[in-house]
Specification:
This protein is an alpha+beta fold. It folds into four domains: 36-115, Orthogonal Bundle (Arc Repressor Mutant, subunit A), CATH 1.10.10; 132-325, no CATH class; 336-404, no CATH class; 487-563, SH3 type barrels, CATH 2.30.30. It has 21 helices and 19 strands. It has helices at 7-16, 28-35, 38-45, 50-60, 77-89, 104-110, 135-162, 175-185, 189-201, 220-227, 230-243, 251-259, 272-282, 291-304, 321-325, 351-360, 376-384, 389-399, 406-413, 464-480, 498-508, and strands at 93-96, 99-102, 131-132, 165-166, 205-207, 215-218, 268-269, 307-308, 311-312, 336-337, 342-345, 362-363, 370-373, 490-492, 511-517, 523-534, 537-542, 548-552, 556-563. The strands form six sheets. Strands 14-19-15-16-17-18 form a six-stranded antiparallel β-sheet, covered by helices on one side. Strands 10-11-13-12 form a four-stranded antiparallel β-sheet. Strands 4-6-5 form a three-stranded antiparallel β-sheet. A hairpin with a 2-residue loop joins strand 16 and strand 17 (537-542). Helix 4 (50-60) crosses helix 5, helix 7 (135-162) packs across helix 11 (230-243) and helix 13 packs across helix 14 (291-304). It is elongated, with a radius of gyration of 32 Å. Residues 421-444 and 483-495 have low confidence and may be disordered.
């Protein structure tokens, strides 16, 4: 039922229904078999909008139909044709003009009541309260939020480099530590939790290998991320939020929510309530999304810089670093040391500067710039990492565009005094135990192992190149079995299993050569038309006499569809 499709249509089918490709396909009969199971059909039906779902219900009770058969008074034939085309694309309907057929599992999935309901609107709800904003203004505001998000993420992970966050037994972060992060980043605790989740999901934070206690600390991914351009840093975070952050909802919900805003060039700002109604029309079989859930997604999109002023940014979907890079500030390698033992970074620091200052100072961030504070504890930490007092002073003098205050010089010099007490303060965010004494070279920081947890809704997804490769393999395997190009009737799909072949024959209603073992244990052959395959039993009719036949599936040794050559 799919071998007659051209390659682009097959690629589209696999992209829409990636579950059909797992595990690897062995032929078109297996593809048809998977595509007609109730589970797979149900997943495909879940992708229909309200009008397409109504059309699917109408055709599910028909053995065959034409588009003209579906048109009650008042419906646009063009809308009906588009809905049927969508069903064809998803493999819920197959066949040609004048002889379209629904797959048999469609009726079982939707039930008979689906055919009796009245038609819903053929177009999505309109946005009555939506406002228009200058796209340039939207993008500039969103870019500012994107920069702030990247800056805060860098602050968070650098902080965890110096003071790793202890995980509780369930693998999460204690609320006390979430509040510490919220104060550090100057955000609400709910948003602080989002920062921590995204840092883990993107691989910037990993888990220490210490078996006595699990700590969140930077991974080697962070080392590479920190040297990347700001726009590229943002793209990783945005893609992680879209596809690998289940806490904010399935990836398809976020992408569909953002799709409600349409073309970013329109600058459309849509209220959350209208977006929720739009989502309900787009995916009526999916769990209903409350307005509160939509508000959460839109709040996170705004904080991340995906939207600005309630409208979609031009670089946001899909996340694109190229247009964003022109809107972000450049990196700086200097700081401004103040008399109160703080230092201000006037912009995003280079990776080298961030490591240098982060080793010697605590992050104390407020407002639009990163603020560091030098303390006895932070300087002692640098000393344990191998920094000498001379190196500290030289680095600070090179990095600071202001003169170093005398109190800071005294604080550094005091590190050489043997009677300097070790700090007794214990923070809610714990440091890992240190081993060994100060070393003449700077010690490499510990790095955590990256977790591999993604959005379950994205499992088994395909990209277009993978789908094309699968189609090429199907065509090659079809040629290898001799099912294409024969000038006379041949056995197609010789190497397909009987079950996949029989399931395909149920849909295509083609004659099947069937080899089986009868009740006496004798091998026999028969030409049949398969009616149903269910619960280990094959219901069929003899191809010649039309007599009803029931065969236990376990007794069937081979099954091949008889086809005439093209």
């Amino acid at each position: 039922m799919f071998r007659e499709r051209d390659d682009p249509r097959l690629v589209e089918l696999l992209l829409e229904r990636p579950d059909l490709a797992v595990p690897d396909l062995t032929g078109f009969s297996q593809l048809a078999s998977r595509a007609t199971t109730r589970h797979s059909v149900g997943a495909a039906v879940d992708q229909l909008n309200a009008f397409e779902l109504w059309v699917a219900g109408r055709v599910s009770v028909l053995s065959s139909f034409e588009v003209a058969d579906l048109a009650p008074a008042g419906l646009d034939p063009g809308d009906l044709a588009a809905a049927v085309e969508r069903l064809l694309t998803l493999g819920l309907v197959w066949g040609g003009d004048g002889n379209l057929r629904p797959v048999r599992a469609l009726s079982a999935t939707l039930g008979s009541a689906a055919a009796l309901s009245g038609p819903p609107p053929s177009q999505p709800p309109t946005f009555v309260e939506a406002g228009g904003i200058s796209p340039a203004t939207v993008t500039k505001v969103a870019a500012g939020s994107a920069f702030e998000f990247v800056r805060r993420m860098d602050v968070l992970v650098e902080h965890c480099d110096q003071q790793p966050v202890r995980l509780i037994r369930s693998g999460g972060v204690a609320q006390r530590n979430v509040r510490v992060v919220a104060d550090l980043l100057d955000v609400r605790p709910t948003m602080a939790a989002t920062y921590l989740e995204l840092a883990r999901a993107s691989g910037l934070l990993g888990i220490s290998g210490d078996t006595s206690q699990e700590l969140l600390m930077p991974s080697t991914v962070f080392d590479s991320w920190q040297t990347a351009e700001l726009a590229d840093q943002w793209v990783l975070l945005a893609e992680t939020w879209l596809d690998r952050h289940p806490a904010s909802g399935p990836g398809w919900v976020k992408r569909l929510t953002l799709a409600a805003f349409g073309d970013p060039a329109d600058g459309l700002a849509v209220p959350a309530g209208e977006v929720a109604a739009w989502l309900d029309w787009q995916r009526p079989r999916r769990p209903s999304r409350s307005q509160q859930q939509v508000v959460q997604v839109l709040d996170q999109a705004s904080a991340l810089g995906v939207t600005g002023l309630g409208a979609l940014a031009s670089y946001a979907l899909p996340p694109d670093a190229t247009p964003l890079s022109d809107l972000l500030p450049g990196r700086v390698g200097h700081i401004l040391v103040q008399a109160d033992l703080t230092a201000i970074a006037p912009g995003p620091l280079t990776a080298e500067a961030a490591h240098d200052i982060g080793a010697m100072a605590e992050i104390e961030s407020r407002g639009g710039a990163t603020v560091y504070r030098f303390t006895v504890a932070s300087l002692q930490r640098a000393r344990k990492l191998g920094w000498s007092t001379a190196e500290m002073l030289q680095t600070l003098e090179e990095r600071s565009q202001t003169a170093l205050p005398q109190p800071l010089r005294y604080l550094v010099a005091d590190l050489d005094r043997p009677d300097v007490a070790r700090p007794s303060h214990v923070s809610a965010v714990h440091q890992p135990p240190s081993s060994g004494s100060a070393r003449p070279v700077h010690r490499a920081p510990l790095r955590g192992a990256v977790e591999h947890a993604g959005d379950p809704s994205m499992s088994g997804s395909l990209d277009i190149e993978e789908a094309r490769a699968i189609v090429v393999r199907l065509r090659v395997e079809e040629l290898d079995t001799g099912s294409v190009g024969a000038s006379t009737a041949t056995f197609g799909d010789v190497f397909d299993s009987p079950l996949t072949t029989l399931r395909e024959a149920v849909e295509t209603r083609e004659v099947v050569w069937c080899g089986y073992v009868d009740a006496a244990g004798l091998r026999t052959e028969r030409l049949v038309k398969v009616v149903a395959v269910d619960e280990g039993l094959v219901e069929a009719r003899d191809a010649t006499t039309e007599d009803a036949i029931s065969l236990p599936l376990r007794r069937i040794t081979a099954a091949h569809i008889l086809r005439t050559g093209s």
